[in-house]
Inverse folding.
């Protein structure tokens, strides 16, 4: 895995751990500077959700410390309504963070997720990361989010087909600890966003490629300079 700056562009606090928490901890331990940014507040779509914003942000800070990553960056675009926000505004938010962190690697959402915020973030990232000369981003990977990726259909966008697998066996406990910071977002089994199901997914992704535990990604772009 490359040394340097890594950026996670996520819709909501908890997506970064669900999608690539083990990989982020691995990056951090290998000397990369890892930052997560969140475009939506993750709470206002719920009844009385505005009161949850501070708690969700605090949880994101705890998760970052447990993963060994930088303090997260928050935006306040409306939850589950990023389709009502001009794409240019989302792109500018992403571009601003890229300018400040100069990442070589970006992790973000899959284009075909059920959640509309995820799909809009994906589009904003690809727009902000157009491969022009001098742009720092060399690699873009899409992660899967339980209860958003597998619940979608081909009518919404491409089906998630992973083509990159990262061994996270040594970082499995760190991911679990970071998820615990978001305990209010977890559900009871057999929900796909239960701790049991999330662990089962990483065991399954690992088993499909001969690893004890893995996180899976779709390669969106990979430049070799």
């Amino acid at each position: 895995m490359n040394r340097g700056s890594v950026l996670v562009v996520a819709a909501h606090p908890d997506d970064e751990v669900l999608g690539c928490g083990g990989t982020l901890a691995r990056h951090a331990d290998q000397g990369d500077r890892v930052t997560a940014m969140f475009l939506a507040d993750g709470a206002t779509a719920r009844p009385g959700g505005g009161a949850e914003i501070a708690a969700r942000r605090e949880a994101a800070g705890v998760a970052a410390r447990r993963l060994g990553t930088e303090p997260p960056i928050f935006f306040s675009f409306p939850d589950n309504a990023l389709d009502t926000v001009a794409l240019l505004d989302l792109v500018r938010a992403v571009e601003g963070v890229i300018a400040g962190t100069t990442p070589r690697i970006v992790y973000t959402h899959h284009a075909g997720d059920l959640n509309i915020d995820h799909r809009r973030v994906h589009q904003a990232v690809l727009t902000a990361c157009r491969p022009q000369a001098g742009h720092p981003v060399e690699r873009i990977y899409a992660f899967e989010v339980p209860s958003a990726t597998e619940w979608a259909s081909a009518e919404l966008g491409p089906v998630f087909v992973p083509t990159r697998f990262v061994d996270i066996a040594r970082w499995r406990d760190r991911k679990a600890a970071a998820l615990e910071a978001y305990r209010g977002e977890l559900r009871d089994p057999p929900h796909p966003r239960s701790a049991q199901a999330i662990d089962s997914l990483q065991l399954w992704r690992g088993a499909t490629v001969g690893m004890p535990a893995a996180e899976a990604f779709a390669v969106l772009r990979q430049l070799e300079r």
Observations:
- The chain has one domain: 5-222.
- The chain has a mean pLDDT of 95.
